[in-house]
Amino acid sequence: MNNRLEGKVIVIIGADKGLGGVLARVFSSEAAIVVVNYSENRKFAESLVADISSKGGEAVAIRGATSNAAEIEDLFKTVIQLYERLDVLVNNSEIYNPLPTGKKSDDFFSAHMEFSAYAYLITIDKAAKYMVRGGNVLNISSVETFSATSNSSLFEPVSRTVERLTLVLSNELAARSIRVNMIKAKIFFNMEPSEPGRHACLSEHIKGGGQVSAERVKSRNYPNDDILSTAVFLVSDESRWINGKLFLSFGSYP
């Protein structure tokens, strides 16, 4: 174990599903204190915390819906009460559910705005108040915005907004030595996604998730997956000179 993240308190938004849960295990394997944020999937979040704890790591599950500013504020207040510091925020709440023009409901529009642009903005805004100098924000989005994929007329502009948000806040928060970077991730599945006909997306559960993730983390080198390697690098002190950058990263899951 390299302990590259030893002692860092890392809050992962949306850690109760998909890539967020995998990152929680990886950061813990590098000796970070992991805060598993969840909105609805309490059972998964608590199971993840129990598994991390059983391996000697330190983690806690805290609820907080990203569509509710008061709940997000309470999330960070609780983190400060528990650990007296907040080092890293990882935003992983983006959703990707492609639908053709004319098929999008009002709820569909609201969900994409709440769980993407608004969620990223509100979590960074609230977290920054509690970050010491040298704080770190990592936004995770999908690489799909580069491909002009059919039926993604809402997802793409919203995701582009998160990109611009990353750049703007990296400049704004630099005066406080808070870094803001972004990973545009592409996940390749070696089996069909859980819902046939749908694109794989960062907010979906990885099929077979818990056991698969645990085995990958045990290897310590995250084979065939530069998403995880890049994420560890960007939240560690090794990247302390990097700010306002966008990284394209790829990973595959059995």
Written account of the structure:
Helices cover 40% and strands 19% of the residues. Helix 3 packs parallel to helix 4 (106-128) and helix 4 (106-128) packs parallel to helix 5. The chain has a seven-stranded parallel sheet with strand order 3-2-1-4-5-6-7, sandwiched between helices. The two termini are 24 Å apart. The chain contains seven helices and seven strands; from the N terminus they run E-H-E-H-E-H-E-H-E-H-E-H-H-E. The model is unreliable at 189-224 (pLDDT under 50). It is α/β, with parallel strands linked by helices. It is globular, with a radius of gyration of 17 Å.
Features:
globular; seven-stranded parallel sheet; alpha/beta; 7 strands; 7 helices; 254 residues
Task: Tell me briefly what this model is.
40% of the residues lie in helices and 19% in strands. It is of the alpha/beta class and 254 residues long. The radius of gyration is 17 Å and the shape is globular.
Secondary structure elements and pairings:
Blueprint: E1 9-13, H1 18-29, E2 33-38, H2 42-54, E3 58-63, H3 69-83, E4 88-91, H4 106-128, E5 136-142, H5 155-172, E6 179-189, H6 209-218, H7 226-235, E7 246-253
